[in-house]
């Protein structure tokens, strides 16, 4: 079977005049795919494009960061039970094992007509197909005070794992006992729906152990907890009684970083010792600037069979930048699934084969309500040919019945596995 | 009990034939890749999760159908298995059974 497949793809490429002989790792003159952004979706797409094309497609990944720092598990760094090093994975296996060419640079612009990506360092990359996976960027224009000098250095979002994660942890360590940690949550959709509530649990556990007179104040623009609500509320009411306070319908409209004050649409100002402002989000700047964000100028609409942009030909958009299908979360696990679905489709399109007409994939999301006990939400999503979108399969999916330590171990195993599946 | 087993085996056999007859192997590979986020690329798992690569196909199918029917307790697989048809489960199990351990 594998041999027949090899011969088929070989002859298809030969017929297209793309392969002179034996394809070599990272070289040759096969079709070119450029991937912008090495997060959960982009890195996965890069790896699987090489793996599934049997190294016939040349893949270049443009990524400014030295290594991959995982957003999932980063709340454990804020809670103090993990270090940033433990959630960091180098990119080198994508090159060593799979022959992905990695260019450490930023993208300045995309010329979709000429099929060229222009990098900040001056390099121009040509492509047959382009994958854009820049994640999210923040709508700072909705919080005027955050654009004042020094505000972004003082008030963390910590919603892209890395330096901000470490700084927020340090701010919590420096906070006196009896202080207040206030976190604001934007209206959905945003990256990682249960993430803010998990973070509240992590900070609360740290306070329970180290600063028991302190408070965690959750100020949520949404009416109510957007994910795993009953499970988080149980944790706050029982494990973190007297420490966590949740307030819905609190939409932050401005931040005074100098006085650590949050201002709201309808509610009184709130001052806290440590602020954590998670701003509203949209598709990453690269996607927005390339005109790919066609849904409210915020998210990128795609064809769910191929992840090809509805705004530009030969350009695919993955991960948190897309306009999600109903019930589809913006999660790392889902982004990993986007990466593989897109890789298979791009290979089929470049080789003149049929694109899978029935994608099916799942989402599994674990949240740590303490450093050991975990709750999950899971779902299975299937392509609906009539509605041309992904829909949750009726009767599938669900949440944990209660927080438990066994799923804590599974959550850590999930992280090891998805990091390897994405990057190794 | 014996009759039930025989029926299950017959049903599995019938399902196997159906899956092989209808689905493009590359599309089955894409379905199986969805499992890889937890169970490792091509089912070769990192520590702490069950490897599926090279496992017995019938055992995997039985386990998934038991999860799906609620006969086998689980933290998460009883919820995920319900998202797949029996035919899809057989096709995915065949893919993993054929992978190198």
Oligomer: heterodimer
**Morphology call of chain B:** globular
Q: Structural class per helix/strand content of chain A?
A: alpha/beta
The main β sheet of chain B shows up as:
none
Q: In angstroms, what is the radius of gyration of chain A? A: 22 Å
Helix content of chain A: 25-40%
Instruction: Count up the domains of chain B.
Output: 1
The main pleated sheet of chain A reads as:
5 strands, parallel
Per DSSP E runs of 2 or more residues, the count of β-strands of chain A stands at 23
- Overall mean confidence score, pLDDT of chain B: 87
The name of the CATH architecture of chain B is Orthogonal Bundle
Overview of this protein structure:
- The complex is a heterodimer of chains A (424) and B (101).
- By secondary structure, chain A is α/β, with parallel strands linked by helices.
- Chain A has helices at residues 2-16, 40-52, 74-79, 92-96, 151-154, 163-174, 195-210, 229-238, 285-289, 332-351, 405-423, and strands at 32-36, 58-62, 67-69, 88-90, 101-103, 107-111, 116-119, 124-126, 129-132, 136-138, 180-185, 215-220, 244-247, 252-256, 261-264, 270-271, 274-277, 281-283, 315-317, 360-368, 374-384, 389-392, 398-399.
- The longest helix of chain A is centred in the C-terminal third of the chain and has 20 residues, at 332-351.
- With 101 residues, chain B is an all-alpha fold.
- Chain B has one domain (2-97): Cytochrome Bc1 Complex, Chain D, domain 2, CATH 1.10.760.10.
- Chain B is 64% helix and 0% strand.
- The longest helix of chain B is centred in the first third of the chain and has 21 residues, at 2-22.
- The A-B interface holds A 1, 5, 48, 51-52, 333, 336-337, 340-341, 344, 348, 353-354, 356-362, 364, 376, 378-382, 393, 395-398, 400, 404, 406-407, 409-410, 412-414, 416-418, 420-421, 424 and B 24-27, 29-31, 33-41, 45-49, 75-76, 79-84, 88.
């Amino acid at each position: 079977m594998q041999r027949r497949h090899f011969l088929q793809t070989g002859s298809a490429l030969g017929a297209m005049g793309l392969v002179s002989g034996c394809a070599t790792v990272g070289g040759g003159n096969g079709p070119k795919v450029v991937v912008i952004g090495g997060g959960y979706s982009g890195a996965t797409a890069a790896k699987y494009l090489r793996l599934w094309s049997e190294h016939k497609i040349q893949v270049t990944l443009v990524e400014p960061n030295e290594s991959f720092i995982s957003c999932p598990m980063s709340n454990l760094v804020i809670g103090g039970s993990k270090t940033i090093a433990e959630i960091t994975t180098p990119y080198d296996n994508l090159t060593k094992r799979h022959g992905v060419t990695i260019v450490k640079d930023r993208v300045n612009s995309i010329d979709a007509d000429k099929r060229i990506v222009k990098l900040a360092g001056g390099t121009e990359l040509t492509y047959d197909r382009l994958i854009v996976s820049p994640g999210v960027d923040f709508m700072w224009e909705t919080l005027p005070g955050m654009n004042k000098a020094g505000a972004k250095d003082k008030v963390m979002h910590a919603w892209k794992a890395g330096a901000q994660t470490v700084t927020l942890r340090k701010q919590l360590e420096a906070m006196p006992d009896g202080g207040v940690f206030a976190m604001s949550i934007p209206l959905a959709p945003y990256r990682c729906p249960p993430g803010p509530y998990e973070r509240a649990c992590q900070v609360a556990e740290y306070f329970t152990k180290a600063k028991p007179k302190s408070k965690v104040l959750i100020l949520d623009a949404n009416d109510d907890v957007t994910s795993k609500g009953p499970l988080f509320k149980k944790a706050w009411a029982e494990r973190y009684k007297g420490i966590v306070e949740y307030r819905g319908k609190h939409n932050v409209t401005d931040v005074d970083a100098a006085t650590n004050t949050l201002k709201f649409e309808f509610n009184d100002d709130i001052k806290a010792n440590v602020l954590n402002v998670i701003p509203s989000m949209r598709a990453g700047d690269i996607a927005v600037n390339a005109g790919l964000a066609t849904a409210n100028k915020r998210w990128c609409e795609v064809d769910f069979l191929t992840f090809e942009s509805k705004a530009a030909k030969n350009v695919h958009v993955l991960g948190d930048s897309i306009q999600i299908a109903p019930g589809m979360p913006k999660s790392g696990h889902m982004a990993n699934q986007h990466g593989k679905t897109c890789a298979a489709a791009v290979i089929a399109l470049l080789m003149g084969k049929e694109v899978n007409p029935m994608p099916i994939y799942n989402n599994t999301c674990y949240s740590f309500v303490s450093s050991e006990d975990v709750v999950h939400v899971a779902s299975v999503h299937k392509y609906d040919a009539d509605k041309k979108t992904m829909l949750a399969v009726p009767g599938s999916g669900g949440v944990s019945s209660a927080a438990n330590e066994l799923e804590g171990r599974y959550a850590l195993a999930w992280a090891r596995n998805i990091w390897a599946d994405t990057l190794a | 009990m014996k009759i039930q087993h025989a029926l299950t085996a017959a049903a599995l056999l019938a399902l196997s034939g159906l899956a092989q007859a209808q689905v493009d192997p590359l599309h089955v590979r894409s379905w199986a890749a969805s499992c890889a986020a937890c169970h490792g690329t091509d089912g070769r798992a990192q520590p702490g999760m069950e490897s599926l690569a090279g496992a017995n196909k019938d055992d995997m199918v039985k386990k998934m159908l038991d999860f799906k029917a609620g006969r086998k307790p689980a933290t998460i697989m009883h919820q995920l298995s319900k998202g797949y048809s029996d035919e899809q489960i057989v096709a995915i199990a065949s893919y993993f059974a054929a992978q190198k351990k």
